[in-house]
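Problem: given the chain below (691 residues), write out its structure.
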Amino acid sequence: MELYLNRIYFGGGLYGAEAAARGYFGKSAREMSLAECATLAGLIKSPNRLSPWTDRDNSREVRDYALDRMRDLGLISRERCAAARAQQIVVSSRQNAQGQSYAVDYIRQQVIAAVGWDRAKNEGFRIRTTINVDLQQAAEDSLRAHLEQVEQHPDYNHQTYAAYAASFRKAKANGTMGDQPAPDYLQGAVIGLDNATGDILVLVGGRDFEHNQYNRALQAHRPAGTAMLPFVYAVAFEKGMSPGSVVEDSPLDNRAVMIGGTTGILGEWGPESAENRYEGAMTARQALVKSKNGATVRIGMDAGVDAVSHLCSAAGIRSPLRPYPATFLGSSEVTLAELALAYTIFPNGGWRPNAPHILERIEEKDGTLVWDGKQQSIRKLVTKPETAYEVHSCLADALQSGTGKAAYTQFGLRKFPTAGKTGTAYDFTDALFAGYDSNLTCAVWAGFDKPQKIYRGAFGRELALPIWVDIMNAAATSYPPREIKRPENLKEIEICSRSGLLATDKCYDAIKTANGDTVQRRTTYTEIATPSQAPTELCNIHGEPRARLAREFPASDLPRAELAVDLSEVTPVVIRSPTLLADKDPYNSLKPTLKPEPAPQPVPEIDGNQKAENVTSGTEADTASNSAAPGRSSNERAQSAPEIRKAIPVQPQDKKPVEIRRAIPVKPLDQEDLEHTLLKSAARPPGDLNE
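Solution.
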């Protein structure tokens, strides 16, 4: 009988008396009253039709019949029977039942995937999950409460949860559920992972499973918005940039990014503030802390789209990312579970667990192990520990003084080591927050199933951050956070925030106060960097300018940009005809092919007529010389160097205006018009031509 009661179906996706007791009444089977036990006994012959969720009157009728039979058989007294019959049937909300909450439904799916459908339904397994019940309850309560507050915002012009719930209950009571439309109110999702193992400690796929069974934490692909920025900076730091490197935050032509169109300048929805202003040169740390889009795109372009996509893939984001700069700002769609898994590389020092999982163990009734989640635990290295810590230190600053500072000032985050990044998608369609401490990484999303603007100014810090704070505060009790250790290779250096170079005693800026006074403010701060990232020059903005000495390199050591073709394999072009060189030869065009020639003799300045005569005589002399040596061999001619002449600047002799003449087309002599000819032939001298 015990085996039978532990396996039979009680309706609503509930198998076994224990599951039915928890599903219908929210308590253990041993805690049920006599009336509740009779209710379960009465619905066995037709679980779905006689379920108190489906038909309360029929359920009461079969309950009373079971009580009467127990009285007739002498199992209970007439008084107890009458008292039990007088009780009303009180059942818990259907969403708390097995198969009626997102977490439990996912557990059921994973058990079936692990052991098969038949074994999952017919064999009695003990299933241990990774879900933390207290954190799960805190997440569900916080998501429900804060999204209800968002619906009260004056600019929120969409369906509310309360309005749809009333319509749903009415349709359910009237038996018209087939005509009930899908919910269109603001949705939310939460997922929390154990950093070391990938255990899913918290899973909330929506506001109400009974309204819609779509699990938005695991299945929905939505743009992560500016929550993707840390991965762009991780690639840049991996390639040699440091958090103290100076980047430019200025307007950017949107044709280079193409978010929301192809015209205008890049929109500034990421700073989590209505004051969208550009700040010019700033350090990479400041750009990430303040979530600066223009600076991020410039950093991403230097790092490379392919490199950013490769790191995201290695971090656990399996969704395809579009190979365009818009991906730097989170325009590509990912799941919330993928984003949370990718964020674990920062508290873990560059590595992540293999994959999120919700099952810990599956055992037979006798304790025989059927499935063990620890066997699936594999660590995957994604980036260097130094890079992960550099990004972590920036995200910690973002939570202390950047886009997430409201966590402390407004939402009551407790004082313990933590870090995170807000996420806002273009046109305020999605709001996210992803953050972590040393034990737990949690990601929160809010938005609509059909993407549309929540309202203007619906930043991640307003919608998702307060939910994240509630969960992290609850988790700190069970999982006390500790300080994340800094790698030994990262050293502290003092740099100037204006130049990104080593600080000097002159790194001050003159700042005007509110009353008009000018004060000197120190522009330096302590930064972390590896020896290869650390600057070696002193600040070149403050203090005296220094002469820059150029190092002389041999030809083989001359630093050059990497070329697409190896020039050492290219045969130089040999000069084979007379060549005229200018006063200078800056590229040493003769050096690879010709030997040094004696310095040319200076040419005396002569007037125009003499110069013409000299050129004519020189040409005749060259011709005569060539004719005088007809026997010179072809080999000697091939080996002789071509004639090279050096151009000497000609200085004008006087300041007389230059005569300008118009060129007239030349015609055949028999068609020449002598009256209009500019240059005429000289008159024939008198005399006999034969003289």
